């Protein structure tokens, strides 16, 4: 299950060498070809791996070390440049295999659209799935200038698929009027601007349920995540996002998969955002893979 | 009233094509020739327009869309390079015409000195004018190394003009001792370090009064606005500045004009500060142009 | 024929306001979704326009001024993000219309694949068409990882279309062994490493023929064009490229269209490459539009 | 006592020209040769001096001006490139001389290891010395890959020297498990994540005691200090660090020396972090040199 | 004659501490307020000094060392921000004093307009003065948008002053048609595109004459000098400019003063252009101060 | 013989997976702790590997493909931070082992001092060894501020070791007077400024002899290699350096090892220099490993 590419040798710090023995699998989805604004997130996964060597293996937040968790870094899924449909199919197929093997999928984007096939695959395994979604943007469009599969549509598509009432969005501060109205009408749980406070209220209601979590780096304020495609002022701090990860870790939800998307290294001076993304992934692995 | 330059075609998103039908007019004042430290704010207005295409037209904060407000983007006022006095005169003349036409002036700097002729023109129309001023710096010098018209003097000059008691400064964290003392002696309302809390106390006292608002981007912390001429640690977040704009929108003051100055794109990696400036302008248009 | 978008107002310096009266039409093809390495050329056309305001209108090389040539800047062709096939079709349709109206097409990329539909459209009008191609790369692959329409295939596709003997490539210094062999076997005119010398030998043989010219910015050495997707050491200077443009201008070929592609502003510190691209376009307009 | 180098002419704003009359001495320790990750802090001291010219001389926080404090800027201590042991010895010797002359040492790094010889020298003068340490990292390793003198060991070495109970670390969010355990077992005062709150509790217990304070810039969040060797998300704001400096100034501790380390200009876009470092030093001088 | 400013301590490597004993004087003219395009050259002189510490003191081209030449670095002339006329007057006054003291003036810009008052002062001392001018731009406008003193006019003004036949421009590749025509009509020696070859032909004709030399960094190709206000493709290499300096050194002309202008550090990634400027100054000092 | 580090997985394109079967071995020497100016070359080797994925495997210059040469990428030699002597010893030991195994050593720096232990090891195997050295700097100092092992001394040390007459330096344009004199007196072959022409004269005289070749990236002009520690104007183009590599390939010398040093990625905007370094290594492998 490791992709055999010349350049996939780089791995996340302390990843386990053996797929079979691992409980969770980390993989990159280096696709950015439907973004309308600033491309570049295709280089996100490898950059996260590269800077992970600067991380400590121990989390003083969770009092746990990376070698306590067996996870395998499978490299990047090879995706056909400029062909979104085929790319999405290959991601979905890959995640189906992971799930069939009993692995917890941990994805790194790439643009946010890559989360859609993952969530679909996960939803096919877990009937009662809920989605927790951290983002600056609603991502609730039905289509973008006619294209159905776009970086602006993934949450809408998954909400249509599993029912809007099972989707919980946090930190949203940008979108079309119609998107906010649709969310309201459909009973989707969309929390504007705030993250940690509404999350703490929601988590008890999800106790015991399988939950997939998708984090768009731009939920962070541009001060904390300049290296992303679409920055939007007024976001949360990396401190609040860390606390949100820890709140989920301390709750009774059953994390069955997650991803972190939209790191775009070319806009990221001196790897500030990449280092943050890398630390977030360490905390998610240590907090959510029990 | 649109300036006829080859390059003035770029306009702020959703600006109205017709001057006569518009209630408010957006214009650039691309002057930076009196700054002592880092020039470059001359490119601020066009950069704000350029990145505005990445904005949503809808504000989830105010539940309002840009097409609900008729505003005209007039381009940049042509200013003679290296001639501050003539530049200030041309700005003042221009704003007088806007006011005579019943338009609300919305300016984009340029260095902070460009606000002075605008405020003078506005003060000639509104007897009871109050100034709300967000800034890291006092800008209260009488002169700067002998030059009376400098980026360090605009608030002093307008305070002398309309009376210090009618000037309210927020977020100030840098200046000469004499400037702070002068403000105190003259009864100017200068709030050090803090913005939102004192603003909430001041706004009820200004109810019904005509108010001109000038925002220097450096009131934001360097983390939130690196792309400005003179960064100064210890500032507020973009979240607090957005909340301040919304507090003014919700108050009973009569906003008769405003500007946002000191965006300097060359110091702004990946347009972080420009995107923030652009969003701030959207919120001011949606919140303040009733 | 000008695209009606909010942000298309920005135009190349001294472009003519009227389509009908213009002899040539400048347009952007902001597509970069099939590139395998570094995306970003979608922002090339608008950046070229933006920096064109720094250009003089007069060429001391050609002793001619921009106002001596009537050309219309039509803005960017709207292209569906992430959909290469549809994008190529829309470009081809657009250029057919230009040609039907008797205009000379002058394109700005975007990735090199955008040249393919343009060349096809031009070839359908001119039976005897020859292609002059400046590039670091062969671009002669049949497909790239299975995808037929890729940034690595445009010259192969057009060679297949009009016959390899009608294609003249200069400055080539990178490609697969098979590509060089194919060129040789097929009688394509592929000149390795050198540009000006072989061009001077070729031009007399093309006298009177209709010629389409496509310039990939990476034919320049990385020192002269860092702001492109795929830099490759050992290229020519901007001086040699200017001399090549002037050699074509002085020859007897009939330039029936041209493009300049692969400027990627995000890799271009301080607009060095953009300024060069902008000057090259001025020289092509002044030298080739008689 | 000023180092006689060609380039040491650049001095911190308003430093006093005379060593003998000065109460405190500012000096640079431009060493970065034991860092394992990103070098470059050797250029920190001169960059701080350079940008200090943009500072106001007056602190509105402390209502005091730089000319009220006589401090001498001695330039950078000349250190042998690539020789850590000799470098540390020269620093220690230098600080011994300062202390013998009755001066308060104020150091600028350089990597954090440079603080060790300074603290040792200070400890030899003050029996009852306590260390206040602001940092993202524990710096409590016994050695780093076998090397005892490393950027990861200075706090451990000084704790061993003066007793762990006399060391107070704030804001720590990164380290090996063993380091946190060692701190706990030894009774060191290590406060995780938080700074201002625990500091306010600690300060009264240190009243009257001689205190040396060492600030690693990376205690700040990467949003506030991108220009450092090892960024780590989840840190404090520059506002909180300023408040901490002011809390110490208002307390009854006896500041007998301090330093600020790990500014690395090459990772610092547009001097954001350098400007912050420079302001922090102004506040420390004004608040701590009575 | 050294300007007494806080930050003027930084000096060019191996400058002599004593004004009286020095044969030549180096000074900065940090003015950039009339430039129409990209400001920032005000920081040029100090950046040149800063990076000079990386230079060797010996020139293998000229077999001479800096300590063989007594030159004094006087720091930057204090200039009133935003006031070009007063700035030019102060420069002229300063250079008159230098000449009266028998010193050879060596200036660092700043925008090119700063050369005008220097050349005027020098012309008042030497009847038979010739100007050698290296530049991409003609700088021959009578005025720029009505302003007579602009970065586009200095060569015109000095040509009017000393007679166009005494001005020799090399490397010119940009300007208005009228400027080239004016030069031709007036008998000015304007060499387009080329530098070293025409220079070698001109030098013998100037043997024994007093010559002032002004170098605009943008005579270099953008590949060799990206860090300048107005880059223009098709320029010469740094190698050719070095050879030109050495050709002048080897000729019989009498260099009575010179300057190097238009280094703009903010556009200069990693100090590439600054290092080149610094080396050029070393070579001019070693080659031209006999 | 592959170093077992978490991050050493990244390998040069088309390197062979098996040490035993390989003829040549590529290894990194990530040391930069003795440089006096700008550190950062420790990250050179991994950056070269990373960008190698953008290379074609085929050289149109040499008509050869990478898979025709069996070479093993061993990763980076683990070196103790801040300890030059121990680092040099470990490099020497490592290369002795390579040579004992019959492998051709191909090193990537790191600072230039890393070449010294390699050259020593190679000299112990080949009695008649000659050194070919491409560099901007002499590197002939006996010591640097007292330190014998410094980035300024490696060529002197090896010249002392194998005899100055066996050392051939090309492109030298910077050094102390004493260094140039020493070279002359000792009969070392030092060619100032020029590379290709003197190389073509020297190569026939070395026919059949074992030759070690060391390339400092700064032999290139800063336009062609901005990403290095010490840039120096007036260097050669990447085209000339490629031609020099090909001249050696075509000559009768016996290349028994080589290295390329001083790539410093942090000063290298958009990987321009790294891409060039990577291509140079491909050409050396294809041209020199027969």
TrEMBL record, chains A, B, C, D, E, F:
Superkingdom in the source lineage: Bacteria
Gene Ontology MF terms: agmatinase activity
InterPro entries: Agmatinase-rel, Ureohydrolase, Ureohydrolase_dom_sf, Ureohydrolase_Mn_BS
SUPFAM superfamilies: Arginase/deacetylase
Keywords: Hydrolase, Metal-binding
EC assignment: 3.5.3.11
Listed Pfam families: Arginase (PF00491)
PANTHER family: ARGINASE/AGMATINASE, GUANIDINO ACID HYDROLASE, MITOCHONDRIAL
Family per similarity comment: Belongs to the arginase family. Agmatinase subfamily.
Name of the molecule in the record: Agmatinase
UniProt source species: Planococcus dechangensis
